[in-house]
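Q: Structure tokens for this one, please.
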Amino acid sequence: MWSPCLWAQYMKLDCGTDFMTLVWTESRSRADPSLFRLGNCFPTSFTARQAVFSVGLDDCNFRRLVTGHQLMYTNDLTYISSPDSHVVPFTHQVACTYERPKDWYPLSYDPVFNTYGQADLVFHIGLMNDDFSGPAESTSFPLGSFIPIMASVEEKTHQPLLLLLEECVAAATPELQPESNLYPIITNKGCLVDSQTSRSKFEPRQKSSEIHLSLQAFRFELGKEVFIHCKLVAWDPVGLDNTKKACHYVQGHGWELLDNPSYANLCDCCDSSCKSRRMRSVASGKLGVAQKAVLGPLTITDVNS
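A: Here is the predicted structure, written as tokens:
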């Protein structure tokens, strides 16, 4: 185990008034800086040897603790490694401590827990504007344009979780019926099958608790109401397998994994069958929670009609 003074050789921490900057310099040549996480946040930037996080203290699942005249924000810097990697996973606590403002008396604060939280997870899914910075201004999308979709999960006191879209289909009704006409979007445990014949893709993650999908508007129920039915899964980031993944198809290249490139072979089953295994619950101290969600109504229009 590394000593605190040795950690200091690798990490530089700058605590601002409401933000922090962390720079981790990695000396091991086989380590991949893109696999570092600060709470549920991905690196703001990274190079071959460094991972940089420039984040607000209200983001990334920072924990806030008030003790006497001090206000402390803590989080965990984690390295997520593949099972066959020579670099073992590790976690290091990060803390920014401030003098508590004299006129600041919170009604409550978030204590530091070393165990998994038991609170209910809250899932969200919505239509976004073109750069995913806010909600969409319209629910009408011309055929061939992009439908930006964001799904997220509020983790509260849970350990950081990776949000995945396990399945999505389009239908003409807010409830699926046996006779419903369906358009498959994501099938086979996280394979964006629509990307095989379109420019649909998963966008790079900013937080593990969010997933962004740029869905190219498809020819389905043109001019009528469309609902997108999805199964969302919040999963342990180190518990990925070929049934817990996010894969999209890149023309001329093949299937690509959105997350950890060390697990690229998890997408190989997208052309066959990705075997399922029994879901285990985070609420019971295990690996994941699933939630069904419906997005819509939205309308796909034919610009030539």
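A few notes: Helices lie at 4-10. The first strand starts at residue 11 and ends at 15.
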